[in-house]
Amino acid sequence: MVTLARRVSFSSGHRYWLPDRSEEENKRLFGRWASPFNHGHNYVLWVMARGPTDPVTGMVVNIKRIDDVLQERVVGQYDQRSLNDEAPEFEGRPPSLENFLLVLSSSLADLPDGAALTGLRLEETPLLYGEWVKEPEMVTITRVYEFAASHRLNSAQLDEAENLRLYGKCNHPAGHGHNYVLEVTVGGPVDLATGMLAPIDEMDEVVKREILDRYDHRNLDVDVPELQGRVSTSEVVAQAIFDRLEGKLPARLERVRLHETARNVFEVVR
Ligand SMILES: [Zn+2]
Ligand SMILES: [Zn+2]
């Protein structure tokens, strides 16, 4: 079996505002996102399809036929539209990333050539995306953050020559730094009233307080208590971030991804 991913993009407007609720109630539900007026996104959707490779065509599914389906059921339905006003599936159901993924998971359930839809990734901005996975069925939301920090790779269990041999220039005594990119993913049931599985603002506050304020523009080896006495590789840092955030976020922590450079990324999953 092979899984392939196909990308499609479209632009839509939407708003977080329930017309049958008071202004106070809308503000309580949606926080600073509450507004009776639309805003817009350039959405990017990734569709994951899985199946056996056909021995004659060499394909799981004809990409052209997938594109036809995406044009008809996604671009044709939502591009240059207001989701609240022009998409009946969002009547009485806020067009959040989470609800959008659930709607797409059923409208794209039957892909051509018998290919099985296994997952979706919908990006609202480069710093916020949602994912739907078929088995076990789950919706997650991922927030992307950045921090800059310095460190030095050096193990107390190894001598000077061994450290230099193992870590090379990363062992330089004065240290060096990275612009880390941190992705935090939470999952769980979607709230029917808000269409969200977690208040994003609350999630941002926790990550800021627990990680960004404590790691940004710091020396990881000196300033961060949970890394003391450990080698600050990204394996160790990613796990320390996961452990630090566990149980503190407004939804279940599912995954932490830490990009140390554009060429390496480390992932801790539940
Ligand atoms: Zn929006
Ligand atoms: Zn480094």
Overview of the structural elements:
- Strands 1, 2, 3, 4, 5, 6, 7, 8, 9 and 10 form a ten-stranded mixed beta sheet that branches.
- The mean pLDDT is 96.
- The chain has eight helices and ten strands.
- The chain has two domains: 136 residues, Tetrahydropterin Synthase, Chain A (2-Layer Sandwich); 129 residues, Tetrahydropterin Synthase, Chain A, CATH 3.30.479.
- The protein is an alpha+beta fold and 270 residues long.
- Strand 4 and strand 5 form a beta hairpin.
- It binds zinc ion (ZN) (2 copies).
- One zinc ion binds next to strand 2.
Provide key terms for this protein.
8 helices, Tetrahydropterin Synthase, Chain A, 2 domains, binds zinc ion, 33% strand, alpha+beta, 29% helix, single chain, 10-stranded mixed beta sheet
